[in-house]
Amino acid sequence: MKCIVGLGNPGKKYYQTRHNIGFRVIDELASRYGWTLKKDKFSGKSTVEAHDGEKVILLKPQTFMNLSGESVRPLMDFYHIDPDNVLVIYDDLDLPPGKIRLRQKGGHGGHNGIRSIIDHVGTKEFNRLRIGIGRPETAMPVVDYVLRSFSKEQQEDVASSIEKSADACETWLQRPFAEVMNEFNS
């Protein structure tokens, strides 16, 4: 069983923000397969589906970003999912819009959603897909920047990164994560 988690904040007012790009990738995947996410007992919206003979879970925690681990850990425990079979998708200030990077493990890099997952799951060894949102060009506080929508000039790059991210997720359902990293990080 594999679990793909997209990070974001619940509510319509946050949906188009930079911080919610993980949610948007999950929605793209669900749309491609005709799957529907529903509110669940893991403080999130999720679906469990069969895909090529394997069960796949899509999860959008509804805990707000900084508490993402409160949703991810109970789901992993309930379904007995190893961290190797989890892929977390989230925004990254250090990558420009349109760029994605995959890695197998690492620290939180200042991202509070990842920090929460590491704290709750008890390991840094889970797969990640980082999606570039760039840094503010002005002295705007980061918290304000991530909770704003992308500029019109960034929309095309954002749409491309959502598509590439969903493609990488689909590829991971078929192949080892190391191969997916080699293909999509080049």
UniProtKB/TrEMBL annotation:
InterPro entries xrefs: Pept_tRNA_hydro, Pept_tRNA_hydro_CS, Pept_tRNA_hydro_sf
Annotated site residue numbers, Stabilizes the basic form of H active site to accept a proton: 91
Keyword Nucleotidyltransferase: no
GO MF terms held by the record: peptidyl-tRNA hydrolase activity; tRNA binding
Active-site residues per Swiss-Prot or TrEMBL entry: 19
Keyword Transferase (UniProt): no
Subcellular location: Cytoplasm
Pfam family, one: Pept_tRNA_hydro
Name of the top EC class for this enzyme: hydrolase
Residues under site feature: Discriminates between blocked and unblocked aminoacyl-tRNA: 9
Example of a GO biological process term: protein quality control for misfolded or incompletely synthesized proteins
Location, primary (coarse class): cytoplasm
Amino-acid positions noted as binding tRNA in the UniProt annotation, renumbered to this chain: 14, 64, 66, 112
Reaction catalyzed: an N-acyl-L-alpha-aminoacyl-tRNA + H2O = an N-acyl-L-amino acid + a tRNA + H(+)
Keywords noted in UniProt: Cytoplasm, Hydrolase, RNA-binding, tRNA-binding
EC numbers: 3.1.1.29
Gene Ontology CC terms, in alphabetical order: cytoplasm
Subunit composition and interactions: Monomer.
Family membership noted in the UniProt record: Belongs to the PTH family.
Cited function: Hydrolyzes ribosome-free peptidyl-tRNAs (with 1 or more amino acids incorporated), which drop off the ribosome during protein synthesis, or as a result of ribosome stalling. Catalyzes the release of premature peptidyl moieties from peptidyl-tRNA molecules trapped in stalled 50S ribosomal subunits, and thus maintains levels of free tRNAs and 50S ribosomes.
Protein name: Peptidyl-tRNA hydrolase
UniProt source species: Lentibacillus salicampi
